[in-house]
Amino acid sequence: MAAQLINPTLLDFIPLEEHYRVMDVAPPDNCYGKTLIELDLRKRFGVFVLAIKELVPMRFVFLPPPEFVIKPSDILMMIGKEVDLLRLRAREGS
User: Fold this and answer.
1) Is 7 within the bounds of a domain?
2) Residue 26, SS3 per DSSP
């Protein structure tokens, strides 16, 4: 509790509806080399990319632009209904 008070996160300030979550998702293999606009995750899965944690090079991209190209080393920080996020996460490695 003390750590949360000292280092609040975005989720401490944004109340989410019951079925919504923020989740880190490794992109499925078929996403590599495609832009966010090509993937159209909002239309296909009903989820939004809030940020991308790039491991190579090590950096954090908040609100990535639509032309951002997904790499195998990227982690997508997404928001959406838990069921939709889990459906996308289930495609990891496919």
Assistant:
1) no
2) coil
Residue 41 CA: distances (Å) to CA of 34, 35, 79, 84, 91: 12, 10, 11, 10, 13
**pLDDT (mean) for 17-40:** 90
Query: Which residues, in sequence order, are bridge partners of residue 24?
Result: 77
DSSP 15: P
Query: Which of 13, 80, 89 minimizes the C-alpha distance to 50?
Result: 80
Q: Which domain holds residue 81?
A: 17-89
Tokens of 22: 């923020």
Q: In this structure, what are the phi and psi dihedrals at residue 21, rounded to the nearest 5 degrees?
A: -145, 160
What are the residue ranges of helices labelled H in 15-81? Answer: 36-39, 41-45
| Residues 63-80: tens digit of each pLDDT | 999 999 999 999 999 999
Structural domains in the chain (count): 1
